[in-house]
Amino acid sequence: MAARRDGAPAHCQIGGARGEPCADPAEVKLADSWGDTVWGCLTHADETLVNARGAFLATEDGTGLAAYLTARRTRPDEAAVAG
C-alpha cells in the first residue's frame, strides 16, 4: 500500500545498525515531533520505534493534526462562547 502512494521510496531508508542499506520495500513512514520522517521496512521500523525516543508511525488517514485544525477553523461561533 505504501509503495502505491506518491513520495514513498521503493526501499527502506533506515537500513541496518551499522549503516548498511536495506533492499526490503518501504512499508511504513515514521516521524518525530521535530518533523523528521523516514520510510522503512517493517523490521527496521519496529527496531526504530523501540530504540528512537519520540518516533511514531505517521499516517495519512485523515484524522491527524490537519483535520483537527480544519475542524477548529470551521466553528468560529463556538470559540467565542468557550472563552
Report on the structure:
This protein is α+β, with helices and mostly antiparallel strands and 83 residues long. Helices cover 31% and strands 13% of the residues. It is built from three helices and three strands; from the N terminus they run E-E-H-E-H-H. It has helices at 42-51, 65-73, 76-82; strands at 28-31, 37-40, 56-58. The protein has a three-stranded antiparallel beta sheet. Strand 1 and strand 2 form a beta hairpin. The longest helix has 10 residues, at 42-51. The chain is elongated, with a radius of gyration of 17 Å. The mean pLDDT is 83.
Shape: elongated
Major β-sheet strand ordering: 2-1-3
> Sheet bearing the most strands, described?
3 strands, antiparallel
Q: Please tally the β strands and state the result.
A: 3
Strand fraction: 5-15%
The termini sit apart by 43 Å
User: What value does the average pLDDT take?
Assistant: 83
Please identify the structural class as seen in this structure. Answer: alpha+beta
Q: What's the helical proportion of residues? A: 25-40%
Radius of gyration over all CA atoms, rounded: 17 Å
Uncertain segments of ≥5 residues (pLDDT<50)? none
> Could you give the order of the helices and strands?
EEHEHH
- Our count of helices gives 3
Task: Itemize the secondary structure elements and their pairings.
Layout: E1 28-31, E2 37-40, H1 42-51, E3 56-58, H2 65-73, H3 76-82
Antiparallel strand pairs: 1-2, 1-3
Keywords:
alpha+beta, 3 strands, single chain, three-stranded antiparallel sheet
Question: How do you describe this structure in short?
Answer:
The chain is of the alpha+beta class.
